From TrEMBL:
<dbReference type="InterPro" id="IPR011990">
    <property type="entry name" value="TPR-like_helical_dom_sf"/>
</dbReference>
<feature type="repeat" description="TPR">
    <location>
        <begin position="61"/>
        <end position="94"/>
    </location>
</feature>
<dbReference type="InterPro" id="IPR038645">
    <property type="entry name" value="TTC5_OB_sf"/>
</dbReference>
<protein>
    <submittedName>
        <fullName>Tetratricopeptide repeat domain 5</fullName>
    </submittedName>
</protein>
<dbReference type="InterPro" id="IPR019734">
    <property type="entry name" value="TPR_rpt"/>
</dbReference>
<keyword id="KW-0802">TPR repeat</keyword>
Length: 256
């Protein structure tokens, strides 16, 4: 794999304007991650290369498709929707399945938006209960550098990676927590999650306009994003069980 990566990088050095070369670098980095273990840092490197490919050739549907795959893996579901939609628009004959991927990523945001609206209205008592659970747990945390949240829902599809959990903290701030290589059934609503604070966390505003392709209503939802190391995550004060692990499947391809 390292040899393949070096060849791809050499192709970039030979012609820095080549979209195919940048695309090859990105996909080789992604392939390496599936072997070595998925990480946010690794995905950022792959995405940086794929963005270069898009900048060099905005008319290639395969590049937009692959960028959509990376966006979905990074929890950038709105960007994934736009990239998959663009790939479909450019070649809807060869990329029929791309519309489904577009819909899958949109559904995640729709679920999150609906859950937030419900908890802030008819589910207000449930919201208070969940936040109260977090406050109790925070009193027992080892230090100020530990984040504590409670699972509100699992909003990714069973076949999707990463496992995407909707969470809430003691300040009633909603978030999306991403776990790679963890099975869909490993965690449940009400589980308390604690993990070290890191630079891989921040605020995100997801925005999708109305799209003729999907016939959707516009979406705008603000949430925190947490990329958590499986080894440092505690679930109800305990490490993740070995049975929680799942094989990582990535739906990425490089077209001829």
């Amino acid at each position: 794999m390292q040899n393949a990566l070096e060849k791809a990088r050499e192709a970039v050095r030979t012609d820095v304007t080549s979209a195919d070369a940048w695309n090859a670098v990105a996909l080789t980095l992604l392939a390496q991650l599936t072997l070595d273990g998925m990480s946010y840092t690794g995905l950022r490197k792959a995405m940086a290369a794929m963005q270069q490919a898009v900048d060099k050739d905005k008319s290639d549907p395969d590049i937009h498709y692959n960028k959509g795959v990376l966006g979905s893996l990074m929890g950038s579901f709105d960007e994934a929707v736009r990239d998959f939609a663009r790939a479909y628009e450019l070649d809807n004959h060869r990329q029929k399945g791309t519309r489904r991927l577009c819909e899958d990523n949109l559904v995640i945001l729709q679920r999150a938006q609906t859950r937030i609206k419900n908890l802030n209205s008819i589910g207000r008592s449930e919201l208070k209960k969940l936040c109260g659970t977090v406050k109790k747990e925070e009193a027992h945390l080892p230090g100020a550098q530990t984040q504590c949240v409670v699972v509100v829902d699992t909003i990714s599809d069973q076949t999707m990676q990463p496992l995407t959990l909707m969470t809430i903290d003691s300040h009633e701030s909603f978030g999306l927590l991403f776990l790679y290589g963890i099975s869909f059934s490993a965690l449940k609503i009400g589980d308390v999650l604690s993990f070290p604070l890191s630079e891989k966390q921040g605020d995100a505003v997801y925005h999708v306009d109305r799209m003729e392709l999907l016939g959707n209503e516009p979406i705008e939802v603000s949430m925190k994003k947490y990329f958590v190391n499986n080894e440092t995550l505690l679930v109800n004060h305990k490490p993740l069980s070995p049975s929680a692990k799942a094989s990582l499947q990535v739906s990425s391809r490089l077209f001829a």
